Amino acid sequence: MKHFFVLVALLAVTGLNTGCQNKKGAATATGLKRVHFDFDSASIRGDMAKALDANAGYLKKHKDLKVTIEGNCDERGTNEYNLALGDRRANSVERYLTNKGIGNNRLKTVSYGEERPVCGKHNETCWWENRRADFIAD
Known about the structure:
Layout: H1 2-14, E1 35-36, H2 46-61, E2 67-72, H3 79-99, E3 107-113, H4 124-130, E4 132-137
Parallel strand pairs: 2-3
Antiparallel strand pairs: 1-4, 2-4
């Protein structure tokens, strides 16, 4: 029974049991970590702040790298609302990074709302995967 729970946990972490797949290929620019958001929020979570701190460190080491921060949402809410929420998420991440010393001339933001899900199932695990900001190298 113990092995069953370990397997279930492993599948949940890897996304294999949720149908979560990144349809665009790489989730982020090499060396940059995707960040996730709580439902209906653009606030940076404490655990995601650690990922953004690591991203800021990476960007400081790679001074020529410019990125687009893509704000994304889960499917709940109207298209208009989710586009606005995705915009708030991308801008929140941009502010965080500029406060860490990354020049805003190296950062662009865009919102895709709910239009680019990485997971197509209708459950909390997938919605969590879709509530995110990705970093795409320009």
